[in-house]
Amino acid sequence: MKNRWSKSAATRFANKHSHSINRDIALRIYSSQLQGMESSLVLHGGGNSSVKSSYKNILGQNIDAIFIKASGHDLATLTAAGLPGLHLARLQELQSIKTLDDAQMVNQIRCNLFDSQAPTPSIEALLHAFLPAKFIDHSHADAILTLSNQKNGEEKLKKAFGDEVIILPYIHPGFSLAKAVAKAYAKKPDATGMILMQHGLITWGDDAMVAYTNHIEIVTRAEVFIQNRLNSKKSKKSNNIATAKKRYRKLAPQLRGQLAAPTNNPDTPYKRFILSPIIDNESLNILAQDRADKRLLTPPLTSDHLIRIKPLPAWIADSEQIAPAIASYKKSYLKYFNKHSKKHHSSYDQSPRVSCIPGVGVVCAGADVGEANIVRDITKQTLQVKNTIANMGEKYSGLSDADMFAMEYYPLQQAKLDSEQPPALAGSIAMVTGAAGAIGAGICRELLANGCHVAATDLPGPHLDSLVADLKEQYQDRVIAVAMDVTSSKAVDEAMGEIIDEWGGLDIAIINAGLAHVCSLNDMKTEDFNRLQKVNIEGTLNVLSATGRILKMQGTGGDIILISTKNVFAPGANFGAYSATKAASHQLARIASLEMAGDDIRVNMVAPDAVFSEGKRKSGLWAEVGPDRMKARGLDEAGLEAYYQNRNLLKAAVTAKHVANAVLYFVTRQSPTTGATIPVDGGLPDATPR
User: Which long-range contacts (C-beta less than 8 Å, at least 24 apart) are formed by 446-450?
Assistant: First the structure.
C-alpha cells in the first residue's frame, strides 16, 4: 500500500487551518483523510482516528483533551466538526471501573464533551482514551481481515508479524474491548500496532506521521504475506456480462418485490428498497466457482458491516425461483433472531441486503440509492477478501451467530441508521413523462423533495439535460435522465429497463407528456389530429401498459397519476384535437383504475389549468397555445396570465408546485382513493368533474 504522507502537504494543511484549529487537530484531519482515501482501509464511515491535545475552556484554562471521530462521520471528508473534544482525564478515570454498560458508557462520553451540541463520538472513544499514545489510527483493512478471518488466522498473523504486533481475540466493541486493548498494550508497549481479530487494525504514535506510517507498513506487510501464499493457478470461467445484465433486468422487479418489508399499514403496506447490482467479470466468476455458496454464505468481514449487510447474504441458485429463496432466507433469519433475542421484543425486517445469483450477479439493497451503494461497496470488498482467502487455499472464519446478533442489535450501531425519520417517499421510484416541461419539472422537484428517486423522461435534448443537471445539484444520484418517446412501445419498454438497471424497479408513474394544437374542426387536418393522438392517447396507453406489467411483477402495489386537463370536462373552441385526445387518455386511466385495483395499483388524475411556467422553465403547451390566445384577446404574455388567473373563483395563479402537491396527495396515499380527479384550477365551475 502506498504511503501518501507528504511533509510539505501536511505543513501546508496545518498552516492553512491554523486560524481556526490547533496544529494537532489539523494534522489529525490531514492523516485521517489520507486513511479515508484508501477504500481497502475503510469504507463509508468505517474506521476511527483520534488525537490527544489540549482544550481552552471558557475560564481560559487549558485542559487535557481527546478529539475523536464522531460516529458515522467519514474519514475521507473529515473536518474539525467531526472531531468532538472530550475531557481526557475523566474518561481515563473510567478505566478503574470493572463494568460499564452501554447506556452508562454513552452517558459518560456525552457528559464529558466540551460542546453539548457536538455529535456523539465513536463507540470506541474509551478505547482511544485508554491507550496512552497521542495519535491513534483504526481501520478495517482488507489485508488484515483476510488474515484474521480465516481458520488459524491468529497463527497466520504471528507468522506475518512475529511479536511486533499485538493480536487480540474478538471482543464486542465497547467498554470491555477498551479495557482489553489497554491491558494488552500495557504488556507490550513497544509494539507498533494491534490487530483485533475479525475487526481491524490499530496503530499509534506520538505524531500523526508515525501513527499513519505504522498503519501503512503493517498493511503492506500483510499484503505481501498474502501475495506470497496465493495459489498460482486461479480457475476462471468465462461469463457474459451482457447476458447477466439482460437477466437482471428481467428479474429485478420481482426480487425487489420479494425484498419489500411489510409495514402493517394498509395504505402503504410495504417498506421498499432500492437495488444496486454488482455485475462484472470478477463477481460472476466468484459466483460460478464450485462451492461458492459455502464460501459466500458466511458472516461479514467485520462487525461494523453488520448494520449494512446483515449477518448473511441470500443465495438464489435458480433465478426462476426468487420467491421461495427469499422466503427461505426470511425464515432462517427469524430463527436466528428467536434463538439469540433475550431483551428485544421484535426483529428488524427479515429481508436480505445482499442476494447472490449465479449467472446474474450480486444484488445489493438499501433504503435509498446512497445506502444501496454503500452496501454494494462493502459487498464488493467482502467478495474480494473471501475470494482471496479461498485462493490461499484457506477456509473463511467469521464471527459466531451470537457475536453477530450482539452487534446487529447493538443500539449504538443502529443509531447510525435511525438518526433521522425517513421522508414520505423514501425507497420509492417514480418515472415522470414530459419532465422537461413546466408541470413535469415541478412534479420532479416535489417528488425528490419528499425522498423519491425520480427518472425524468422526455425526448432527448437540452431541455431534459438542463433539468436533470439542475436537479442533480441538490438530489445527486436520486435523479436520472431517461430519453423516451412515449409513442413507441419499444422505446417505453427500453426506458423502463434503464430505470430497472439503475434502481431495480418502479413504484410511481406520472403520465404527463402531451401535445396541444390550436385549430377549428373545420380546418383540422387528419395528420395534425393523429400527431396528438400518437402522444396523448397511444403514449398514455404505452406507459399505462408497461407500468402495469412492472407493478404487477413486483407485487407491492403502486400509483399511476395521469396529468389530465380541465378541457376534459370543459373543452374549448379551436382546441378540439387536444380536448378530444386528452379525454381519451383520461378515460384510459379510469379504465386502468378498474383493471389494476386488485393489485393495489391506484390510478388517479390531476386536472390543472393555465400553468405557464416553473421558474424560468416555460410550458410547452402554452408555447403552442399562447400566441393564438394572446392575439384573440389583444393581450401580451403577462396580460394573458392575468386573464386566466382572474377567470377562476379564487383568483389564484395556478403553479407547477400546486399540480405537484395534488400528485403528492395521491402518491403518499393520504386516502384510499382510485379513479378520482383532483382539479387544480382555482375553481372553474364548468370544469368540475361530473
Answer: 446/657, 446/660, 446/661, 446/663, 446/664, 447/508, 447/510, 447/660, 447/663, 447/664, 447/667, 448/474, 448/475, 448/478, 448/479, 449/423, 450/423, 450/424, 450/425, 450/664, 450/668
DSSP secondary structure letters along 448-506: HHTT-EEEEEESSSHHHHHHHHHHHHHHGGGEEEEE--TT-HHHHHHHHHHHHHHHS--
Long-range contacts of range 331-338, CB-CB < 8 Å, 24 or more positions apart?
336/311, 336/401, 336/405, 337/405
- Please say whether the beta carbons of 297 and 312 come within 8 A: yes
Residue 347: which pLDDT band, with cuts at 50, 70 and 90?
confident
Phi (first) and psi of residue 205, to 5 degrees: 180, 165
Question: Yes or no: is domain 429-684 CATH 3.40.50.720?
Answer: yes
pTM for this model (two decimals) = 0.93
Domain 7-227 superfamily per CATH: Class II aldolase/adducin N-terminal domain (3.40.225.10)
Q: Is the pLDDT of residue 417 over 70?
A: no
**CA dist., res. 83 & res. 17, Å (int):** 14
Q: What is the mean pLDDT of residues 372-393?
A: 96
Confidence of residue 234 (pLDDT cuts 50, 70, 90): low
